[in-house]
Amino acid sequence: MSDMNYKAAIEAILFATGSAIEGSKLMVALGTEEEPVPKKVFNEAIKELMAEYESEDRGIRLIELDGKYQLCTKNDYYEVLGKIVNMPKKHTLTDVLLETLSIVAYKQPVTRAEIEKIRGVSCSHAVNRLVEYNLICEVGRLDAPGHPILFGTTDDFLRSFGISSMDELPDISPDKIEDFRRQAEEEAGIEVTT
Description:
The chain contains nine helices and six strands, in the order αβααββααβααββαα. A hairpin with a 7-residue loop joins β5 and β6.
């Protein structure tokens, strides 16, 4: 298979599936289970393909989502596409939803009770809405009494915020954390120990 056009094969797979595919699965598909395409060869093909989509005047692009790859429409053509296809409604994220989503993003995997402890109020509605928007999902169960659900972010979260991995989330400085603690103490009228 050394004469295979890897870029064309990757493009064909991603176009046909329409979803994000792990790089390791693509390497196996381009080679065999016993001998997948070398990572260096795969990475070179992916980089070239991404560059071609970005540099050319095309309506699609190739994105990376935490080690997975997907073909998607460029944002510039969303309005035009919406005239032909029933586009999903863009969801509005309220302050409550953003706050809850931030907690999940930074603390994942996290239970509903842990989110409520941080926020200080019930978060059932916010969690349900974020699951409905496919920004968070169930990632497992905590090994504790009642086996509460653990939540984490989804590929749609990465896509929606224009990041390719959770490593791209901004770090929260110790000064900010101290400000948040002080605000929480003032709002609740209690002293928070760290």
